[in-house]
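Annual report, structural modelling task.

Input specification for the XIL complex:
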Amino acid sequence: MNKKITTSALLSVSAMLLGCNNSALLSEPAAKSKVTTGAANISQTKDIVSLQQHFAEHFKIGTALSRAQILKEFPQELVAAKAHFSTFTPENSMKWERIHPEPEVYDFLASDALVAFAQENNQELVGHTLVWHSQTPDWVFENDAGEPLTREQLLARMEQHINKVAGRYKDKIFAWDVVNEAFNEDGTLRESKWLEIIGPDFLAQAFTMAQKAAPNAKLYYNDYNLFKPEKRAGVIKLVNDLKANGVRIDGIGMQGHYALDYPDLSQMEDSIIAFAQTGVEVMITELDISVLPFPEDSEQGADVGLNVELQAKYNPYVNGLPLAVEQQLADRYKQLFTILKQHSDKLSRVTFWGVSDRQTWRNDWPMTGRTDYPLLLDRELKVKSFVTEL
Ligand code: XIL
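The model returned the following structure:
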């Protein structure tokens, strides 16, 4: 595909952005929206108006969308999302605790809106996620008396949930992250209620149920830290075992919550190659590169349960990103995309975990209230200048 952006494309995206209401920007918390320094100037460029066009010859480019974005509380973010990305993932709206908060209660407000948005714009939607140990209410694993369910009962509940959620969007959702984060760092299965009650075949069960509920959707396994050789081996074994048992799995999602010095990108590259050799699709599903110091005693990765106390030393760029650090971020992104582009024949998609630095979970993980700069769009929704070099 042609990488050059035509003048008319440039004008139409600018017009969309200009035509948009400014009130959402103004109503953002000051700390998050007003980070402008000299450094901010260099992070703005008009050369790239659309990330999806910029990377079109290599891979599809996607983003996560938050509930507030989906429900149009931030119209400018949505306009930018439409311009820059061609595949979307709900950041939280389809997680069990949100879409099925109580046994008899389903909340499809945001997910229906997202499905409609993706359909209107002819964009792909990746459902996230059907089976996960996090953001899943305790009641899921208990009976009315608060006692643990039996294997059969939990399987029935899993099936009911998958039928209801994946079934509802049967031919409207392109793919599902069927199971999220089932592995420990050493490649063994994580101790979760799913494993404890159902046993190690809970993954095969989930994929089988998803295939029945949404036969035309692609079915993915998604996890963080998949660059680690041991974790990589665990996932490859999973894929091979599923296939050997006649259970369909279509892809592996490598989350990609990274930092300036984490991980070793050559290990990530090894994983892309090894995963591709299993014959399934490989994709980067949740990319962001934090510029902030990571607390020494905590494990890097993306354990959403991690919640470290905020300390000033971990939040050094509240008033703007120094040029030298922006340069480090640029270099890191360049190294990463050099590898990704080299393997674009194996990568179906690169999805960022958020539209812009203004609203990214990295501002709140692994501690709340920081000012991070992990994405390719800055707080004013401008494409960072180094992106032209990616
Ligand atoms: C994160 C969301 O971005 C946050 O808003 C939420 O509070 C916690 O979860 N791995 C995943 C994503 O698969 O679902 C997580 O998203 C980030 C780590």
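The domain at 51-389 is CATH 3.20.20.80 (TIM Barrel).
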